[in-house]
């Protein structure tokens, strides 16, 4: 019999589904995480309204099917995602899953959007545990470190406070997240606090391979790699991105054309995007935002079955016809500039 992950709970999990799921070690954390992990971003306010009851059932079903890594943050609906997860996790054996939340990014208005001080970190993390209904999380992450007034603040205030939380047993490991992959590397190089994993989003996709260039650095240091948002925060989906998406208009147009081409062939672009990202063996888990049962089933199908020959052909066609023509492959610096312009007024 295939070795089952440490999170397998007899009588709770769907044994056959767990057997089909692939598990990888998340760097020095030692956690055996599922190839597909559950992103709680869409359970906030950034991706439209959702049915909470369906979301709760989706979360529970995902864990039963062998998805054992869950990611959330206060930023996702100012605690809404954490609260929804807290409701879903009631009654589920704690040993059946790993969960991560974050500190640092909070409100929608620029004035209160970021706060990396030790005091705010302490208060925020306490509230996160309360909303989740948990005594501890497996990983506590600093959210979008590039927005801190300086990296020195992260290193001298935020990370030491998280280290204290770990010593008190409220978290097991520390991680960092951010859009520029270079700052994740720099933070690891400079910090004397042990950082166990990084979360990089929208940087190993059909349009941007930036993360790939940094993988050797992370692997050499046994840093776990969480690759989030293969569909590029909705950009690479048939539905398209939310209005706030920071990609250039030309990039959005090219991706929209690719999506229309996929619709004409009755294929979901997001499925192709997820499959592409999951082909990298050096990525420990692919974190994809899931809001409902349809999202879950689509992504599980990619894990279990991959994509067929016709879909592979279609993928090559959209890459050649549309995605290869994209000039602005990422939006690094765009949100940062907007934020500091607003703060300096």
TrEMBL record:
**Alphabetized GO MF terms:** L-galactose dehydrogenase activity
Question: Per the record, GO CC terms?
Answer: cytosol
Domain NADP-dependent oxidoreductase: residue ranges: 35-319
Q: Which Pfam families match?
A: Aldo_ket_red
What's the protein here called?
L-galactose dehydrogenase isoform X1
Species the sequence originates in:
Cephus cinctus
